[in-house]
Design goal:
Blueprint (H helix, E strand, L loop, with lengths): L6 H14 L6 E3 L5 H7 L6 H16 L4 E4 L4 E5 L13 E4 L6 H6 L3 E4 L7 H14 L12 E9 L3 H18 L10 H6 L4 E3 L1 H14 L3 E5 L7 H15 L7
Parallel strand pairs: 1-4, 4-5, 5-6, 6-7, 6-8
Antiparallel strand pairs: 2-3
């Protein structure tokens, strides 16, 4: 969360990660939205957009090898550069977190990649609204002229049958929901999440169908959240193996 941390530290730490990973680092950045996080860091929520924008600009300038001087309400330093620069130039790929459809056009207009977690939204329609709004407003940035790129992270469980997938994952998903502090989804039951299309839980055919629909709607990449709510390891592994063996091949080019 950029508003909560020193952008100089973020820039150098993740530049080092890019070097250690031989240029495979992808940067995920968010502005935060949970009240208890802002309270914990002593940051007022109304400042988050300005803090985020300024921090991201500083990080990128440092990654380009610039010496940065800035005196603002949030940062105050002179002629600072980082000791380790990322291998990927001009910049490591950056993904901006969003959980509301209305922020998608602002991210798209800056030419940024976007990532979201549907669990934090109200319904599958809101996911489609975000995808549509993002693609409609996307303009490639000068730094990173990549096509519009959307990653969504889905709570995923692949069972032998859809009924067994639901039965095997329900308790873990309910525990995850009960213990997370997401403002919009804390009180949702498993049935509400499932019926609103916010989970990908079923047999391989069901998961393939859902992912295909999301791809048609504008999702370009998918992250699977496979271990949620203390789901037992002996259930996580078979689910991941089924996903790898039965779902992924449906989306792999011949």
């Amino acid at each position: 969360m950029c508003p909560f941390h020193d952008p100089r530290s973020i820039a150098e730490q993740y530049a080092l990660l890019d070097v250690l990973s031989n240029g495979r680092f992808n940067f995920g950045a968010g502005s935060g939205y949970l009240a208890h996080e802002f309270a914990g860091f002593g940051v007022h929520p109304t400042e988050k957009r300005e803090r985020f924008d300024e921090a991201l600009d500083i990080i990128r300038r440092l990654w380009r090898g610039e010496h940065v001087t800035i005196h603002s309400d949030y940062n105050n330093f002179d002629n600072v550069a980082i000791n380790v620069e990322p291998l990927q130039q001009p910049l490591p790929p950056t993904w901006i977190a969003a959980i509301r459809a209305e922020v998608a056009p602002f991210i798209a207009a800056r030419g940024e990649r976007i990532m979201g977690i549907p669990y934090a939204l109200e319904r599958i329609g809101a996911v489609h609204d975000m995808l549509e709004a993002y693609h409609a407003a996307f303009v490639p940035s000068a730094d990173d002229r990549q096509p519009a790129d959307v990653t969504l992270a889905w709570h995923t469980y692949v069972g032998e049958t859809s009924n067994s997938a639901i039965a095997e994952s329900r308790a873990a998903m309910e525990q995850y929901t009960a213990t997370r502090l997401y403002a919009t989804s804390q009180d949702k039951t498993f049935e509400e999440l499932y019926d609103n299309g916010l989970l990908i839980i079923g047999d391989a055919s069901y998961c393939i169908e859902r992912i295909g629909e999301l791809g048609d709607a504008g999702m370009t990449r998918m992250l699977t959240l496979s271990n949620f709510g203390a789901l037992p390891h002996d259930r996580v592994v078979p689910s991941m193996k089924r996903f790898a063996a039965e779902v992924i091949p449906a989306f792999t080019s011949a």
